[in-house]
Write a structure and sequence with these properties.
Layout (H helix, E strand, L loop, with lengths): L1 H12 L3 H11 L6 H13 L3 H18 L4 H18 L3 H15 L24 H5 L13 H8 L14 H18 L57 H4 L2 E6 L3 E7 L9 E4 L3 E5 L18 E5 L9 E4 L3 E7 L11 E5 L13 H4 L14 H4 L5 E2 L8 E2 L3 H8 L3 H11 L2 H13 L9 H4 L20
Antiparallel strand pairs: 1-2, 2-7, 3-4, 4-5, 5-8, 6-7, 9-10
Length: 476
């Protein structure tokens, strides 16, 4: 069984989630190992089996607490973090923040059964009252900020008090991960309407202990014994039969934010080829094809499952909208038909092509085949023809000519300074990208920022000062 467990964990690390689950199922028949439960929870979450993912995270928490081994606290920290990620995916944002905070408290060395009152932070309407600013400023208990670091020594030299410093616990990285994740959760929470159910608390610090429900299953494909001469072969699992994956599991993970002019929608999808993508905008829909589906590897261009239709939460100006694509996501910038209108939600995704409503023009994918993302500085094509505007006078500004009749709108946009940019960057990043950002920014003393974890995880990010500035090492 140990071999199955190790192979299952390795498959999760390699992101082969479909192969990991039967291996971990077999391993967990004889042992409730918290490490295996957490790995299976992660696999279920990526395959959009959210109930199963939550079940495994909660069972891992209880099993780790009962065992009381050397790894128990770390596994409990991880279990609370996993709960937070799952609740966020389910749009239960208040519950997600509570679990992230409990993960931080465990990393600080606080008692697991302490009544910390995190879930009691609600207003008179029963909505969660913790704000984004509260979360960002919640660093008092950060472990490892003791008087042995330079800032602590400087505080002592200057006569400051060290009473607020905290000792190292061994879980500093876990605390930082949960702290950064909270900023993303609370950043989303502040954008949702006041009556959104995700603002309500329905979670408890110690979850009800779920029952072990995994039934005995036939052995997965035999795992070959390792040999000195044989190279490691990937675990092969048969692809799902066409049409066997429910539509709900095919849907993409989506995030969005908005300002007075645009709604920006991020669709998290891997390996979409920019040169093949066809994106068509209409007033109430966006149609995208072809999309690879991680949970259904049989999907090919032209299949129904390769197309997504986004039914939007408001009306847009198709000619003023644009898109861009990277290896990990597709980003849509939707120009609002009514500037200043606040969308309650970005909309919803339907698998396959959806007929346009009566009286609307259907998206033309053939015409959109050659669509390229519009430069961020350029005025949207056709916008001047559809709405009157003042003359654009010559200017040396990097943003190009200005329409002085719209100066008020531009001044509003100027309020979104570099801090706003970094907040949005964190908000749209994956936990792996956030770790890369934290590591690169900290090690380089704020001179470098990377979102590529594979690039920075095994090296120290060197400080690269701006031209004309000499970097000097500070010693107390």
């Amino acid at each position: 069984m140990t071999t199955y467990g190790h192979k299952g964990v390795e498959a999760v690390q390699n992101r082969d989630y479909a192969a990991a689950i039967p291996l971990l199922d077999k391993a967990l028949e004889s042992s409730n190992s918290p490490a295996w439960l957490l790995a299976r929870s992660q696999a279920h979450k990526h395959l959009k089996n959210y109930d199963a993912a939550l079940h495994d995270a909660e069972l891992a928490y209880h099993t780790a607490a009962e065992r009381g081994s050397g790894n128990s606290r770390k596994q409990m920290i991880e279990a609370q973090y996993r709960r937070s990620v799952i609740y966020h995916t389910l749009r239960r944002y208040a519950d997600a923040d509570c679990c992230a905070k409990w993960s931080m408290l465990l990393a600080e060395g606080r008692p697991a059964r302490e009544d910390d009152g995190v879930e009691k932070n609600v207003d008179q309407d029963g909505n969660y009252s913790v704000t984004y600013e509260d979360g960002v400023g919640d660093t008092k208990g950060q472990p490892g900020q003791g008087a042995d670091d330079k800032m602590g020594m400087l505080s002592g030299i200057m006569g400051g008090s060290s009473s607020s410093t905290t000792a190292k616990t061994g879980f500093e990285a876990d605390w930082k991960r949960a702290y950064i994740w909270r900023s993303q959760v609370l950043g989303v929470l502040k954008t949702v309407p006041e009556d959104h159910p995700g603002r309500k608390i329905s979670v408890t610090k110690i979850p009800p202990k779920p029952q072990k429900t995994v039934a005995k299953k036939p052995d997965p494909k035999p795992v070959p014994a390792p040999s000195d001469n044989a190279s490691k072969q990937p675990i092969e699992t048969p692809a799902p039969a066409p049409g066997s994956v429910p539509d709900e599991q095919l849907k993409l993970r989506v995030d969005f934010y908005q300002n007075n002019q645009d709604v920006t929608v991020s669709l998290f999808v891997k390996d979409a080829k920019k040169e093949d993508l066809q994106v068509a905008f209409s007033k109430h829909q966006v149609q995208i094809s072809p999309l690879p589906r991680a949970t259904a590897s049989y999907v090919k261009a032209g299949d129904r499952e390769a197309t997504s239709t986004l039914l939007l939460g408001g009306e847009i100006n198709p000619s003023g909208s644009r898109w861009s694509a990277t290896p990990r996501k597709i980003e849509l910038v939707l120009r609002k038909a009514s500037p200043g209108a606040k969308w309650a939600t970005w909309g919803k995704e339907e698998i396959g092509a959806v007929a346009a409503e009566a009286g609307q023009e259907a998206p033309d994918l053939s015409a959109a085949a050659s669509t390229e993302p519009m430069p961020a500085q350029a005025a949207p094509a056709g916008l001047a023809a559809s709405s009157p505007s003042g003359p654009a006078y010559p200017t040396s500004s990097k943003t190009g000519p200005k329409d002085w009749e719209k100066l008020a709108d531009e001044e509003e946009d100027d309020k979104q300074d570099v801090n706003f940019f970094f907040k949005q960057l964190y908000k749209g990043a994956t936990p792996e990208q956030q770790r890369a950002m934290m590591k690169s920014f900290t090690e380089s003393n704020g001179t470098s920022l990377s979102t590529d974890w594979e690039d920075v995880k095994a090296r120290k990010v060197e400080m690269i000062p701006p031209d004309g500035v000499e970097a000097k090492k500070w010693d107390p």
